[in-house]
From TrEMBL:
<protein>
    <submittedName>
        <fullName>DUF5131 family protein</fullName>
    </submittedName>
</protein>
<dbReference type="InterPro" id="IPR011101">
    <property type="entry name" value="DUF5131"/>
</dbReference>
<dbReference type="Pfam" id="PF07505">
    <property type="entry name" value="DUF5131"/>
</dbReference>
Length: 306
């Protein structure tokens, strides 16, 4: 289903199909599975069916692209909120080829491809070392274990804009070593200081970049962080979010704090009333956040061309 969206870090949501399978702790209380079941669909089985969406749905990005071109302002499209583009499933080979053609035909859209399977990207994406500039590639990272697994795979891609989604954030993360390549790209620019300190006081400019485990043109440009939503939400500590923002600042990476989560919202009281009772069920109203976490920035590409 293609639609405008309430997700703060994008403009539109496009789903070429529905369905996926769980691969890590972030999937435990999957909102997409929950939403699909409301419509009577059982789509979150490893070898189960995937629901293909209509041709009219597939025409929506073409309309968005025309409008963005008329406006002279690129529009961001999150693909796919109800699936994983890089899931290895036999039903997806042909629709995935159709998706690549659609992406290439809509250069005024900033396609945000977010996956929990970055190890599949090289074998599924058709662009090799020449990715279209308007495609952003991201990996979901909820714990340090999955940071260790997924970020090196993400950094093998030659996509121009790479990002991370740390949502739901389930523990404190140290991502500083993977943010170093972005530093390397700007170290000799007069716009940045001679010494860039990491979140724990280490001088990142003194690290031997040639020994770092990355193979990316630019490095990670954007980090989204957020707590979990839904009735069984696990806790995201404010300190974990703050640490990610600080790591972004140290590495000149754009931070985007989406929400602090339903578990956090339930514990907050303003004027004797819980903000959860005021409709802020995801902890997304930043008027109630600590001031230093009211941060919603985008990668440099949007700033230059948006």
């Amino acid at each position: 289903m293609a639609e405008t969206t309430k997700i703060q870090w994008t403009d539109h949501t496009f789903n070429p199909w529905w369905g996926c399978s769980r691969v890590s702790p972030a999937c435990r209380f999957c909102y997409a599975d929950r939403d699909a079941q409301r419509y009577g669909h059982q789509l979150w089985r490893r070898h189960g069916e995937r629901r293909m969406l209509s041709d009219n749905n597939w025409r929506q990005p073409v309309r968005w692209n025309r409008q963005a071109e008329r406006d002279g302002k690129p529009a961001k499209v999150f693909c796919a909120s109800m699936a994983d583009v890089f899931e290895d499933h036999p039903q997806l080979d042909e629709p995935r080829k159709r998706l690549w053609d659609l992406i290439e035909a809509t250069p005024w859209l900033r396609w945000q491809l977010l996956t929990k399977r970055p190890e599949n990207v090289a074998g599924m994406a058709p662009w090799g070392d020449s990715w279209p500039d308007h495609v952003w590639l991201g990996a979901s990272v909820e714990t340090q274990r999955f940071a260790e697994q997924r970020i090196p795979e993400l950094l093998k891609s030659r996509a121009k804009t790479l990002f991370l989604s740390c949502e739901p954030l389930l523990e404190e993360l140290d991502l500083s070593r993977w943010l170093l390549p972005w530093n390397r790209a700007v170290l000799h620019s007069n716009a940045f200081p001679d010494h860039i300190l990491g979140p724990y006081g280490d001088d990142l400019t003194q690290i031997d970049c040639d020994s770092c485990d990355f193979d990316s043109a630019d490095g990670i440009a954007w980090i989204i962080s957020g707590g979990e939503s839904g009735p069984k939400s696990r806790v995201t500590e404010v300190a974990w979010v703050r640490s990610l923002v600080e790591q972004c600042r140290s590495a000149r990476v754009a931070p985007f704090v989406k929400q602090l989560g339903a578990a956090w919202a339930k514990d907050q009281f303003v004027g004797g009333k819980s903000i959860f009772g005021h409709g802020d069920r995801k902890g997304g109203d930043w008027e109630h956040w600590p001031a230093d976490l009211r941060v919603r920035e985008f990668p440099q590409e949007v700033a230059l061309h948006g």
